[in-house]
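Sequence only, no structure available. Ideas?
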Amino acid sequence: MTPQHDVTPATDWWRDAVIYQVYPRSFADGNGDGMGDLAGIRSRLPYLRDLGVDAVWLSPFYASPQADAGYDVADYRAIDPMFGTLPDAEAVIRDAHGLGLRIIVDLVPNHCSDQHAWFRRALAEGPGSTLRERFHFRKGRGENGEQPPNDWESLFGGPAWTRVPDGEWYLHLFAPEQPDFNWDHPAVRDEFRSVLRFWLDLGVDGFRVDVAHGLVKAPGLPDMGHGEQLRLLGNQVLPFFDQDGVHDIYRSWRTVLDEYAGDRIAVAEAWTPTVERTARYLRPDELHQAFNFHYLNTDWDAAALREAIVTSLDAMRPVSAPTTWVLSNHDVVRHTTRLGGGLERARAATLLMLALPGSAYLYQGEELGLPEVTDLPDEVRQDPSFFRDAGQEGLRDGCRVPLPWSGDAAPYGFGAGGSWLPQPADWAALTVEAQTGDPDSTLELYRTALSLRRTHPALGAGASVEWLDAPAGVVAFRRPGGLVCTVNTTAAPVRLAAPGRVLLSSRRVEPFDGDFALPGDTAVWFEE
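Reply:
I predicted one. Tokens follow.
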């Protein structure tokens, strides 16, 4: 049965939304060149409607030299030809709305491409150019300015500074092709409010804000005093991340979003030392949601999961923001592999996540149970940090391999011209076609879970759970409305009393009659 959708101006739709991330390069290829594109996305929108999600988040499709897979934007108002045209983007938005789906687009405000018109002019005009004030240009240290202005490191490895031929240095927290904007400059702030309005006028329902924690740097750009700074991300206060000044920016953005009907939203990608710091981005006059990286990084352990859930819910409550839950995205190892227990554990983790109060994010392909591709040959890898000596591990390509749609061999219906990253030879059983209609498949588990989440009164929005007594290694809680979620995080069966009838389980279990054995790595939804 096809889920029913309704895109209306109803307020707070985002409080219990299931939002599906599309990585455009790898979702579907509409023109047969081996690269996913907007035409491919448009053709597969009915699939996303039938899956049962509420909104689709599109990773960057802007004009870009693709030094970092589109996160190096040359023009925030243009579509890169590899993905299509601006009318193609408008068609995706229009068709999605017609199917009851909302569209969220990626926004990359911390940095742009070194091919952005502002940066090219800044380089051409030389020292003293007013355009250089919109970035972080500095003179170097040392007798002849031969040393970087400070000791900050790029997240992709090496110094966070690059020297230009005239002797000045510019800051880039990521690749050298991604110069950081200076958000103390009013022209930068004005430009991005204009970019917001451009896309809102085209009908997008919101923005995922890339590196939302990075826009403002500490005054004077002080030294860190030591190396290996990447190890501190999300753990300590850093002079280039999570500075208090970012909140003025997001308050100004909120006024723009609130000018538009239909509850337009912004979602922060904010790596912070604590969930309490994350909550600051979600005060009533700032952004609407933030990714819960603290939950994503939690081990598959009952006590750790319970602590992460409690901490997350408690942190969001004072700012009246929904907690978000996420297991995979385009930057991390797919949870089928990352959690260490294979598909059964991944399926259990999914049912746990979807039973929690708030909003959930899915990453394309997780509904197919796709594992991380760990054996890509070096010569096909494209993650920019793979080619650097330090920084990130450089293996993000493994979660970006194009999706398998149908057929028995690559490219599995992705497109007529192959796929930009090679797909494994054993993915035939994981295609959408192969899993559709199979009640034991991961795809049908997701479809059923999302349908129940949409219709069951105990699932979706909320701010708390009632914890239930359970043996060691078991997570058990009740949601108001008559649903109990029980998850065995251990490898061994656990004897429990059934609290009601089985609504959904992550794997086949024996019929329940009083006490039952809950298998290892299994989640069950009970209806009381």
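Residues 60 and 71 are 6 Å apart (CA to CA).
Hope that gets you unstuck.
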